[in-house]
Amino acid sequence: MSKQEDKPTKGDTVEHQTGLARLRSRLRLLYHSQSPAAQRFQAAVLIVDLAIIVFFIATPLLRENESFLWIDLSIAALLLVDLVARALASTDILRWLRQMPVIIDVFILATLLAPAWLINLGFLRILRLWTLTRTSTFWRPLKKRGLGLYQEPIQAVINLLVFLFVVTGFVYTAFARRGEDGGIDGYIDALYFTVATVTTTGFGDITLPGPWGKLASIVIMIIGISLFVRLAQAIFRPAKVHFPCPQCGLTKHEPDAVHCKACGHLLNIPDSGGH
What we know:
Blueprint: H1 3-6, H2 10-32, H3 36-62, H4 68-89, H5 93-97, H6 100-113, H7 127-132, H8 136-144, H9 151-175, H10 187-198, H11 210-236, E1 241-242, E2 252-253
Antiparallel strand pairs: 1-2
InterPro entries: K_chnl_dom, K_chnl_volt-dep_EAG/ELK/ERG, VG_K_chnl
Membrane topology: Multi-pass membrane protein
Main location: membrane
């Protein structure tokens, strides 16, 4: 066979590029469109993501199980497929890779593929819940059911939960079985200490040993109080909708607003049903 016959023809190259383009177009429709098939796909992806997050939360309790490694690697495969699919669905892959949720997902994938090397940072897997709330797939079902007004308080609750479990994982990893009296003996103790510290209850029956333990407790209290204040504001502040004013650009308005309170421009805010 000649060298010329070994080379791919122009038609083969065009056909390959067209096939890749069709795949990317199909993935964009599945991840971003509103068709019934796309909504079913997005719902399935969301359910799988939530199941993975439940596994991440339960990881400290399941780590000694014989099947843990296989589940860990299976989830890694699912996350890898999802990352590749989302990369192909993006219009600019390099720009997509620079987004913080994507960077966090890549790090989480690394902890799944190399649990023996990155086990000390495995508690950061719960950040997957935060990255999930950065996508429209998470919020679209709520908005479709008229619950878009509650996005801010729901996000505040999720931010607090993520913080609690990240801190619990850190406390368990860094301080478990290091103290004698008042030390952390297990994951439940770490969670109990975190909640008691964040809420500033301070029972004192479980404490972190040494000066580093005191400094960690101070940081946990300061950030925890800030997140609680943010949650209270989101719950008790009057609900507003996200609708940019065409005139001045003000993005938050009351759901029944007729005119922009900043410039008086006539608004046409859709109702909760999206009409």
